């Protein structure tokens, strides 16, 4: 087992990893920018090293600075968390070259799944259902129009190096193709320094359902059931739950088997998530694979009573997965609490927190790195907390979440708590019958 793990991240995920390491008897090293000097992950780690100024390009994304911190602290492993360098194959490769264990998949696995075209072809060969579309990048508008006609409109243009909804455009007719193709390429180039675009059939009224998998160094892959991430705004997840309200036992087994095929196709090591689009007919299609722990891993932990960070660390240390695939025994919902003004188009709301009270009670969990007096910096993701509730049924879970949200007090900034409260009281959300366009007509324009 490792003696000391450096956490190449910040905020609540860094604190989450520190907690598990302490319980496992492993020393921790926090890295931080000057903007995060007062963050709780800095306070609770065994060691803390400043790696630069606030811009992430000069701190959390700087591989040389992180590796220098490894050398100074004499850490023998790195946990990348999510975001920043978590899916950076070059970073994983540098760790490998320096003899530092990267707690995650190998550089080769990251590259295979990081490029969407390669990932899709790998899944097709493994027998995992994929969305109809181009096998290669689209080089010209003429080629793109021809492929779109073959696939059938509507289609979606996607950046091959994409993520977070960047470089994506829906095209419903041939007349719209040229303009959207240029927009998608330009956005992809500015966001990822890669303007590669491919085409897929646009699945209308889909659900976003993902399967959590674990793979060890000995070829074993298991799944830990599904999470439903359909409630999204501009391709950004806001609410996640498990089990999905539209996935039955038969479909769960099929999707789980496909996710295991996906993992075995690349000899996957560590925690990963295979993401699918589920159509209104119950057919599902591979969308992408995230080769890291996800924000919403807590939902799976709550319904399976499993510490996924501990699993990651054990797998990286060469331990075998001893359990079989797991299925949800409870129902859990997670609401992402962001520092955003929901009444003004979810604009960021950084600043000082004057008072902070997190809800408590049976089946209520809050993962956060903030507190009263903390200054939320404007340089990073706006998420300040995750509120997770667990109950025996979805109906009970929604009511518990509503109660917990009412207890959540954050003064000094705006948060997404009012949005989540309104959502929990919404009839369509309570019915469980909706799709990824649900929030397009969800009105948060005026304070109630």
Main features:
448 residues, alpha+beta, Rossmann fold, Dna Ligase, domain 1, D-amino Acid Aminotransferase, Chain A, domain 1, 3 domains, five-stranded parallel beta sheet, four-stranded antiparallel beta sheet
The gist of it:
The protein has 448 residues and is α+β, with helices and mostly antiparallel strands. Helices cover 33% and strands 25% of the residues.
Structure description:
The chain is of the alpha+beta class. The strands form eight sheets. The protein has a five-stranded parallel β-sheet, with helices on both faces. The protein has a four-stranded antiparallel β-sheet with strand order 10-9-14-15, with helices on both faces. It has helices spanning 11-24, 40-44, 63-73, 89-97, 107-114, 116-126, 141-151, 177-192, 249-265, 297-304, 308-316, 394-407, 417-424, 427-431, and strands spanning 4-7, 27-33, 47-52, 77-79, 101-102, 155-159, 169-171, 197-201, 207-215, 221-228, 232-233, 236-237, 239-242, 270-278, 284-290, 331-338, 340-341, 347-348, 351-352, 355-357, 364-368, 375-376, 383-391, 409-411. The model has no long low-confidence stretch (mean pLDDT 95). The protein has three domains: 4-103, Rossmann fold; 132-201, Dna Ligase, domain 1 (2-Layer Sandwich), CATH 3.30.1490.20; 207-441, D-amino Acid Aminotransferase, Chain A, domain 1, CATH 3.30.470.
């Amino acid at each position: 087992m490792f003696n000391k793990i450096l956490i190449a991240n910040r905020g609540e995920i860094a604190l989450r990893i520190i907690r598990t390491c302490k319980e496992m008897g492993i020393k921790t090293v926090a890295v931080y920018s000057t903007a995060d000097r007062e963050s709780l992950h800095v306070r609770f780690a065994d060691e803390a090293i400043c790696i630069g100024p606030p811009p992430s390009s000069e701190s959390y994304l700087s591989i040389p600075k992180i590796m220098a911190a490894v050398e100074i602290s004499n850490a023998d492993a790195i946990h990348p968390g999510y975001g920043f360098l978590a899916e950076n194959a070059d970073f994983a490769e540098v760790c490998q070259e320096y003899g530092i264990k990267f707690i995650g998949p190998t550089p080769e696995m990251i590259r295979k799944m990081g490029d969407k075209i390669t990932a899709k072809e790998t899944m097709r060969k493994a027998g995992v259902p994929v969305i109809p579309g181009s096998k290669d990048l689209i080089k010209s508008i003429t080629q793109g129009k021809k492929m779109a006609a073959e696939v059938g409109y509507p289609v979606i243009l996607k950046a091959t190096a994409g993520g977070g909804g960047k470089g994506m455009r829906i095209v419903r007719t041939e007349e719209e193709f040229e303009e959207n193709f240029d927009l998608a390429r330009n956005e992809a180039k500015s966001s990822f320094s890669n303007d590669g675009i491919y085409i897929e059939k646009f699945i209308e009224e889909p659900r976003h359902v993902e399967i959590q998998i674990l793979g060890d160094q000995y070829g074993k892959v298991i799944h830990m059931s599904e999470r439903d991430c359909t409630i999204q705004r501009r391709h950004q997840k806001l609410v996640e739950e498990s089990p999905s309200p539209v996935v039955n036992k038969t479909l769960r087994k099929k999707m789980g088997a496909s996710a295991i095929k996906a993992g075995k196709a690349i000899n996957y090591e560590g925690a990963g998530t295979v993401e699918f689009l589920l159509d209104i007919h119950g057919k599902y299609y591979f969308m992408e694979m995230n080769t890291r722990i996800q924000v919403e891993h807590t939902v799976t932990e709550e319904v399976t009573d499993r510490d996924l960070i501990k699993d990651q660390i054990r797998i990286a240390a060469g331990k075998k997965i001893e359990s079989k695939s797991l299925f949800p025994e409870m129902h859990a919902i997670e609401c992402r609490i962001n520092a955003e003004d929901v009444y003004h188009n979810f604009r960021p709301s950084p600043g000082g927190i004057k008072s902070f009270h997190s809800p408590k009670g049976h089946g209520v969990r809050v993962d956060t790195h903030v507190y009263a007096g903390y200054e939320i910096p404007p340089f990073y993701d706006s998420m300040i907390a995750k509120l997770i509730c667990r109950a025996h049924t979805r109906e009970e879970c929604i009511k518990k979440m509503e109660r917990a949200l009412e207890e959540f007090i954050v003064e000094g900034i705006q948060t997404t708590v009012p949005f989540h409260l309104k959502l929990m009281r919404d009839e369509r959300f309570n019915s469980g019958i909706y799709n990824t366009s649900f929030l397009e007509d969800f009105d948060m324009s005026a304070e109630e």
